[in-house]
Design a protein that fits this description.
The protein is α+β, with helices and mostly antiparallel strands and 207 residues long. Helices cover 43% and strands 14% of the residues. It is built from ten helices and seven strands. The strands form three sheets. It has a three-stranded antiparallel β-sheet. 18% of the residues are buried. The model has no long low-confidence stretch (mean pLDDT 88).
Length: 207
Amino acid sequence: LGDFKYRIQTAINYAGLNCARTGIKNDVEIIIVDWNSDTPLSQELKLIPDAYDICRYIVVPPELIHRHCKRIFNPEMATNVGLRRADSEYVMVSPADELFTESTLINLIAILKGQRKTIFDPTKTVMCLDRKMLPWQLVEKKLTLAEWDRYIQLCGRHFVHDRYFLGLNGGYGGLLLHHELWWESQGVLEKNTGWGGTDTDWGLRLG
């Protein structure tokens, strides 16, 4: 939908802004797997300082992909490239254009740090984050961070949940696991193809 570079840039900047607001920049790293780009994303994306500070780029150049990959576009392999190089205690895989609000980040960090009482052990749990849909008409208008912030705070209660393949991780906003669980699951199957197939296969294997 629309300008993907705008979407990923807005998502990263919004995450950086809200990490700064909540004082968790030292606890968060955003890993960007730059897959098959002629011009590196680090040169293309215009990030605010709070987002730039927490980003790490992993570049997989076209010449390497053409030499070793049967498929030029292989999101499953790109996901595993990022997972293998993540060294945080918890790692979340998320679509590139998700907007993480301040309240979402506050609650997530509190759960992972044991500051929220839960009925599950976060270190042994597959946490599938729900997501809600934003109107495509607003995405096409390319709102600023301030405009998105205002809109989400005023209208967020009316957003529609993405409910397809409920229970099989389809339509997720993020898959969050302890680092050891990612290793035990061996990430996602790289032979999978098709939009949503990776999510549901992974959900069936770990469900």
